[in-house]
Amino acid sequence: MKTNRLSHWLAILIGTLYFLVPLAATFEFSLRKIRGVYSFEAYRVVLADTQFKSSLGFSVVLAVVTIVFGMAIIVPMAYFVELRLRKLRPFIEFVTLLPLVVPAIVIVFGYLRLYNSSSILPLTNFTLGTNFLLACGYVTLALPYMYRSIETGLRSIDVRTLTEAAESLGASSGTIIWRIILPNIRSAMLSGAFLTFAIVIGEFTFASLLNRPAFGPYLQLIGANRAYEPAALAVMAFAITWACMGIIQVVSRNSVAARP
Amino acid sequence: MASTASPASLPRPRVPWAVVGVTPFMVFAVLFLILPTLFLVVGAFQDNDGSFTLANLGKLWTPTILSSYWISIKVSVASAVLGAAIGAFIAYAAVSGGLPRWIRPTIMTFSGVASQFAGVPLAFAFLATLGRQGLVTLFLSSVFGLNIYAQGFNLLSFWGLTLTYLYFQIPLMVLIVAPAIEGIKKEWREAATILGASTWQYWRHIAGPVLLPSFLGATLLLFANAFGAIATAYALTGSSLNIVTILLYAQIRGDVLHDQNLGYAIAFGMIVITGLSNLCYILLRMRSERWLK
């Protein structure tokens, strides 16, 4: 048993090294901009770049739109499927897993052909339409994760009993979703939301092929043209991902603590 | 699909609310997920005039396109198999006990972060680590006098890309497979030991067969995950490494090939490959759930 434990330690240690060394290296690299001394010059340059602010701002807004839009269509669907339309479940399972089967680049290729300027619904003709298309693309990317977390949340509460209780008190379906279901699956929704945020914020394929000035294409552009700034950006991107995942941990821990 | 939601098939008069609640999602799924995919699949079997042909698929059999599929498959298989093996071992080490309690939640949280840390920033991180001026590259050459680039290593190559992909593949494996490993009951081991089984026999005849479907299924999921990835490879190598996602990207951008139906065929080929691996995944999961419930 003793050698066993040693090999476990070794696995954890090597794994940890493999994951921490690139982070340390990236951080070290990002400090090298001024020759001979460590400085935060690369960060200063990045933060002073107006394109950095505008692209990050664009992606943040888009992430929020994606989350709101995604939740608005997924929550009612998941609620009614759980409550009354169980027959639909296999189909829903299939659709929500589809984005894991069809690569993002294939989906966006389909968008470009289906919604280009010569189609019936020429969404790519105007900026708002293209932004909407991008948000739709992000909802499909986030769909497996959003649906999974909401479904888990719905299964952990007794949807049927809650609904019947509310109905017997005279509540409408809208009121039930808004005032009974949503507060009860809040932590599941927050987990899904922050995961979506982490996915959307640096996404490259959709934004690049739809030609939108998002953070992902900006990162790629800097990577192709600069030496030290990309490392600084990678450190920031990692911090954002870490923050999102940290919030998910806190949120789900609180929800466990709140439930007896 | 939507027809199964028709009011006729459902009891009670308040049904329309349920239909109203489900409809937006259905419309969305059809417009932004199913139709775009179908459009490409159908397009792959059409010529420029819209009549049926297999010529597009035939055109995939050219050296450039075949080799791009082949490199993609190689990178995906290598990163999936290595990621699955290493990830499963780390998950086992973290879950199965013997180590301090704080290890498990720490590993799981970190895996959650690292599995999402992909795309362009990941490429930057590996350039800063193993690029020509990277910390590890410089460290190896200054301390051990080992110039890995002179030894034939190149980050912009098959192994470089595989090593980079492992950064999100291993944590993803840890996340997927940890619940399955937790499903292994202590009693099985005890029972096996009492009956005189060796460690090897326990793994060969009990834990192995129970875990195998989840393990293989997760490997297939990792494969599809790597196969559809583009951002990391593109930021890492530009278009110098000819993998199929980058080829399709260039094709969509209009840089090469100039034949849109061929683009559909490339996309169709990708769907077939990821589709097959996911189909096997689902079949394996159905098998594994029999035991782990």
UniProtKB/TrEMBL annotation, chain A:
Localization annotation: Cell inner membrane; Cell membrane
Family: Belongs to the binding-protein-dependent transport system permease family.
Keyword RNA-binding applies: no
Membrane spanning residue stretches: 56-79, 91-114, 126-147, 188-210, 230-251
ABC transmembrane type-1 domain boundaries: 56-249
Membrane topology: Multi-pass membrane protein
UniProt-recorded name of the protein: Spermidine/putrescine ABC transporter permease
Any single biological process term in GO: transmembrane transport
Gene Ontology CC: plasma membrane
InterPro entries: MetI-like (IPR000515), MetI-like_sf (IPR035906)
Keywords of this entry: Cell inner membrane, Cell membrane, Membrane, Transmembrane, Transmembrane helix, Transport
Origin: domain of life: Bacteria
Name of a matching Pfam family: BPD_transp_1
Organism: Pleomorphomonas carboxyditropha
